[in-house]
Amino acid sequence: MPLSNHIVVPVDFSEQSNIALGQSYNLARATNSDITLLYVIDATLLSSVFNLFSSHETQESLLRTGIQTKLNELAIEAKKSSGLDIQTRIEKGKIYEEIVKVATELDAAFIIMGTCGETTLTKKFIGSNAVRVIKEAPCPVITIKGKNHNQGCKTIVLPLDFSRETKEKVVKCIDIARFFQSEVRVISVIDTKDEFLINKLTRQLDQVVEFISSHQVQVKGEFIEGDKIAVEVINFATLVNADLIMIMTQQELVWTEYFIGTASQEIINNSEIPVCSVRPIERKDNLEFTIS
Fold it and tell me: For the whole model, what pTM was predicted?
């Protein structure tokens, strides 16, 4: 499956967004992508930094000039470190909306952004905004929470929920695994002793493993016992020294908003291992694995 040649990396010059930028290099090289550094001026906070002694237009112009200078410095440093083509862009508005807008406009293959989970001063940018971006982005979003990460992507953990959208996540996982020649560890967390259900899950797990293997990707499948899905997924990924966890952000209509399933959000918030969130896309074709 061919991918777009753009990766969008939102930055706010914090340590965590710089770490996310560094983690984007390998994926950009593997997919032959350019990187666009995006800084969003938060329109809701802009007025609070203005004073009464000059026009808003003058102050915004000065602010943009300062940001562009720092972006250019970051881009030069990133290009020197990575050898990649690094572009820069400044937008003004709601942070998550502008990130989604730019990713849509560029037909981006991925958004890669830092997140600090549920705490820290930069929560406004890389906490709550990361969740909103994941909910609405037109492409997979890779969130980077931890400080120390492996180079490359040798092992991908793929937890399954056997929803209608599972195959969509599996196909994206295969794309990344083939780029990096990764091993995929497919897991299903179960908390039941029901023999009928276990047999059904076993058939599904086997089908997913067979499907991945048919695409010349090294894969292993196994069950993990436990009743706390997020905890078990993170523990397993840590145990096998994984480089990436792939999740599907299960979305259902609730009033007028979408939400991310509890387990998915807990993984995003708590995993020190990068998490790739794939949003379900409305389709007419059926992406289910058929149980034989």
Answer: 0.85
